[in-house]
Task: structure prediction
Amino acid sequence: MTQRIAVIPGDGIGNEVMPEGLRALEAVAKRFDIDLAFEHFDFACCDYYAKHGKMMPDDWFEQLKDFDAIFYGAVGWPDTVPDHISLWGSLLQFRRQFDQYINLRPCKLLPGIKSPLADRKPGDIDFYVVRENTEGEYSSVGGKMFEGTKREVVIQETVMTRHGTDRVLKFAFDLAQSRPRKKLTSATKSNGIAITMPWWDERVAAMSGNYPEVSVDKFHIDILTANFVMHPDWFDVVVASNLFGDILSDLGPACTGTIGVAPSANINPEGTFPSLFEPVHGSAPDIAGKGIANPIGQIWSGAMMLEHLGHKEAADAIVAAFEAVLTEADPAVLTPDIRGQGTTQTLGQAIAERVAG
Ligand code: GGG
Result:
């Protein structure tokens, strides 16, 4: 059975890491005899906006809805398009319209990569951030009054629904229950954000009643970020609202040495719509065009996509391949963010060769 993948490189380094993501997928598809058909799209990026005055064509939903998955790079090119326009015109539309309400972001210290935290070794940092992905602080509810005057008022509402909160909590509890440590940490701020966050805590407490085997703790987001740095080994599954999850899933990988390796899965668990797989990192205008972006975040996202599509063995083969290349630690192969002198292509090619076997 052919599985159709929509490929959208997006902006900046998305265009550099995507070919390496595809190279690994093509190698693994050949090795495991998986029939993947890639179709490339030039929208959901700021170049498209420059030509058309919008990030995507009006029929983007129709064009993409029947794909088995979407493989995305990165979005944002603030010199051309303000960040909130590019993000709301592309990635956030995918997440919302395709009801990809889970954003699953593994955070793992990989072999060969030095954590900036003292004395941490692989195995010490190995947890998931489960980020609510369709509502919360990322809401389009609000407005401005008296714009441009001294009386200017700006309001943006946080939107949390019982449906939206319970479904992400259920996913996170299920994940925690499936893991050996069976531990779930909730990110809150119920001392300061006095309506939505105490309610979030109540929903966590209610859901925990269904999972007697899962031990649950919670931290206010400020001390939680400190504990990510001081005690990353405490965490197993961390569940968070949209904004808190976004922040934690950049900080977590930074504690593992580089955000360049971090993958993510934007999942519609029911399979009604395609899920979307993208590195956690953005378009990185500061290094775009230099050919030095780390492709592992894109490659690992491809592995998550394969697992989602039912190819666990192939997904594991990709992870084993990049772990082997990192363990070898040839500086001529590795990218500068992980102390190498290589390029996006040298690292991508070494991983693809390993995948091929
Ligand atoms: N590949 C991820 C990406 O391009 N991220 C850009 C960004 O700003 N994302 C914000 C978010 O994930 O909410």
About this structure: The chain is about 40% helix and 20% strand.
